[in-house]
Amino acid sequence: EIxxxxxxxxxTMVVGQRIGDELRTLRAMFVKEPLSLGHLVExxxxxxxxxxxxxxxxxxxxxxxxxxxxxxxxxxxLVQKKLTEGGFIVTPIYINRPIAHQLKFSYINSSFxxxxxxxxxxxxxxxxxxxxxxxxxTGSVINRWGFGKDKHPEKxxxxxxxxxxxxxxxxxxxxxxxxxxxxxxxxxxxxxVGAYFV
Length: 198
Description:
Elements: E1 2-5, E2 10-19, E3 22-32, H1 37-47, E4 55-60, H2 75-85, E5 89-94, H3 101-113, E6 120-123, H4 129-137, E7 140-143, E8 146-149, H5 168-183
Parallel strand pairs: 3-6, 4-5
Antiparallel strand pairs: 1-2, 2-3, 7-8
Helix pairs in contact: 1-2, 4-5
């Protein structure tokens, strides 16, 4: 199961797998400009090229469906095209508009605490180091819409001290994965079909 966050300066991707009542986040990947979203998907297909199960569930929301007039396709279209070209069978699952931050926080917090009906959350510390760091660095704000992530660091330059991969971009990709896996699971959810991704 995969999800993305799309930007000009950095494109991010997370790879997860549902095992029983757990959502295991196995890998976090990114590319920075001048590389683009297509390069990121190709990085994924190369990394998993020899995996015995070449099927992915791709969660995407309304931020990825607008078609660019200059090229005639959307981010979601590009991801699916590149995955298919890389030899993967894709199950796209559209999860509508991003949900309110208050709800998202409540669901994720319940998962982290092992409470409620949400999948328990686990992270591969080696494959998700940038995601873990970004989660640890993400602050919160209260604005006119209520409670939410402090996304103002995304506007700051990409520097060695505070690189883009440690900002909220990659946490947004993970949020999409979490919401998709919990609220829009595919038909075979929880069956542990196929060999494990690593």
